[in-house]
Amino acid sequence: MKIRAAVLETIGAQAPYAQSRPLQIREVELDPPGPGEVLIRIRAAGLCHSDLSVISGDRPRPVPMVLGHESAGEVVECGPGVNDLCPGDRVVLVFMPSCGCCMPCMEGRPALCEPGAASNGAGTLLSGQRRLHLNGQTVNHHVGVSCFADYAVVSRRSCVKLEADISFTEASLFGCAVLTGVGAVINTARVQAGTTVAVLGLGGVGFSALLAAVASGARQVVALDLNESKLALARELGATATVNASQVDAADQVRELTQGGVDYAFEMAGAIPAMELAWRITRRGGSTVTAGLPHPDRRFALPPVQLVAEERTLRGSYIGSAVPARDIPRYIDLYQRGKLPVDRLMGEHLTLDDINRGFDRMATGVAMRDIVVF
What count of other Cβ atoms lies within 10 Å of the Cβ of residue 193? Predict the structure, then answer.
């Protein structure tokens, strides 16, 4: 079938993207779903910094590629062997498919699925196949989703059935921003009530982490960002204090506010200066958790003596250490009960033709979670 899709043909385009247009809207050929795959009508797709990192080259991926990884949609057709979904079912798409058979999956850590990581890096579906074509050339899938298109073929293991009565635009946030940010707090760090938390980088993931810290009962939640309007929103959403990360004494301010540093510092900006600041504001015996994805060549200088003598912990968190089929329904339930007001994080609703302008908004740091609505 023919679909309209945002295709990234080369990486490293320069902003403003509305002029350089790294994403070209093309008519692409989409094959039917193969065994264990489903055809999805995409209804909403969020713009994430991970997409921007592919455009800029900070996260190298094979091109040409249909970009996009955070979305919700409706099942149109099921391939052979898919018996637990039906046409008309609503789903949230997850950007790490899990095979269920490798060691991480069997240990209950599907976010670290080995075949899923391999297929994502190669630009294929979990099956190893590509279902996209443009002018006779095979086109790569973005982390098994490629949702900047009106239709997508994905692995059944990239889908979580949506039972809750929420809109597609709301549901799309749970495929990446909420799953990653909330999961970093609840699953990776296991933040306890009465502790102190700092969140650095107030994008969709960072704000989701902030909401989770508040919901977990942290007694102090300090938000850090470069954008004053985002810091103002953080205060509205429960941050007990905010600090502009550009200030030279930002670390001193946080340590003074928290009497020596926080129990948990979450780095969500994907930038080495943010990582360094997160480490500096973590107290003795505390944990620094990062879900940011800087360029793979960047390095962070870790002082081993501090790690040992202060019994510090540095942890990575990928997709919020999530079990998506378990966590997405839980987080949606918390949202519906008013505990995770993630609807406050939504920005502009865009058309597919506006997508380059949307990434300009993200690159300047002013955007919340802009969403392409189909």
Answer: 8
130 and 193 in a common domain: no
pTM score, whole prediction? 0.96
Q: What is the pLDDT of residues 304-359, one digit of tens each?
A: 999 999 999 999 999 999 999 999 999 999 999 999 999 999 999 999 999 999 99
**What 3 state SS string does the chain have?**
CEEEEEEECCCCCCCCHHHHCCEEEEEEEECCCCCCEEEEEEEEEECCHHHHHHHHCCCCCCCCEECCCEEEEEEEEECCCCCCCCCCCEEEECCCCCCCCCHHHHCCCHHHCHHHHHHHHHCCCCCCCCCEEECCEEEEECCCCCCCECEEEEEHHHEEECCCCCCHHHHHHHHCHHHHHHHHHHHHHCCCCCCEEEEECCCHHHHHHHHHHHHCCCCEEEEEECCHHHHHHHHHCCCCEEEECCCCCHHHHHHHHCCCCEEEEEECCCCHHHHHHHHHCEEEEEEEEECCCCCCCCCCCCCHHHHHHCCCEEEECCHHHCCHHHHHHHHHHHHHCCCCCHHHHEEEEECHHHHHHHHHHHHCCCCCEEEEEC
Residues 19 and 53 placed together within one structural domain of the fold: yes
For residue 284, the enclosing domain spans 180-318
Looking at the fold, whether 196 and 170 belong to one and the same domain comes out as no
Of 210, 188, 185, 190, the closest CA to residue 200 belongs to 210
CA distance 48 to 205: 9
User: 200 CB contacts (<8 Å, ≥6 apart)?
Assistant: 206, 224, 225, 245, 265, 266, 267, 268, 269, 274, 277, 278
Q: Give the model confidence (pLDDT) of 121-160 as tens digits.
A: 999 999 999 999 999 999 999 999 999 999 999 999 999 9
Residue 324 in any domain: the answer is no
